[in-house]
Amino acid sequence: MKLLAEIDGELVQLDDCDWVLWAPCGCAIGVVVARHTPTEDAAWKEFYPTKRERESKQRKGYRMELVTHARWRDEISDLMRAACSHTATASARGEAP
Length: 97
Ligand SMILES: [Zn+2]
What we know:
Elements: E1 4-7, E2 10-13, E3 17-22, E4 28-33, H1 40-47, H2 51-60, E5 63-68, H3 69-81
Antiparallel strand pairs: 1-2, 3-4, 3-5
């Protein structure tokens, strides 16, 4: 079965997408392939199995974004390797799975 997702008004195959977990400071701290986790909810559960953890993270401003592999490769994978440059909230990092 092929699932489609819409990103910025364009239809893309879910097979070509990843969910990226963004920390409140603006760092990308995690990624899961969308093929295995087709919904945002499922992606959250990959990172934080309990509802309590998820709600706590979401309250702190963590967010999940669906991106294409291409954008992941071009823009985000470097961000994940780099150290956090958002010093004010650097302590928000360090919790990556
Ligand atoms: Zn950061």
